[in-house]
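Nucleoside triphosphate/diphosphate phosphatase (Mesobacillus persicus), 176 aa
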Amino acid sequence: MGVPTEGESVQIHSYKHSGHIHRVWDETTVLKGTQNLVIGGNDRTIVTESDGRTWITREPAICYFHSQHWFNVIGMIREDGVYYYCNLSSPFIYDEEALKYIDYDLDIKVFPDMTFNLLDEDEYERHRQEMQYPEVIDKILKFNVEKLIRWIRQRKGPFAPDFIDIWYERYLTYRR
């Protein structure tokens, strides 16, 4: 597995457990890239859905991917604060084509006041049966939902008070 270079623009590819592409983010600027951690930034990037439809993100975002955690976190910077969208997913891999992960349906949306909602439990259950997620994956994902909730409550990792601001400032240096 390679390591993306700081300042490099990479695509992000989200897959489903079946191996089918789910979603592609066209451009994300790498702000930190190691074997274990990738932090990226993007703003108004093109997103392509599996059915070919495209849309453009509305606000700047800082993305957090870790090779040891079964989730990734996107901090979206809006006028009224930072909203986080957390995907329960496989740990990322990076090859020369893109940063890649498997999306496992469950999501947590976190609001600027750090309240949160667990989303898409019905979609997860449906896909778990349709794509026959192994029991070990089910257990790993449920454990990581609890871990993510602890991180949110403890303001740990990407939820730390200055995390998004610090990385957004770094992102802006590449935009100038």
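The chain has one domain: 9-175. Residues 9-175 form a domain with the FomD barrel-like fold fold (CATH 2.40.380.10). ok done for today
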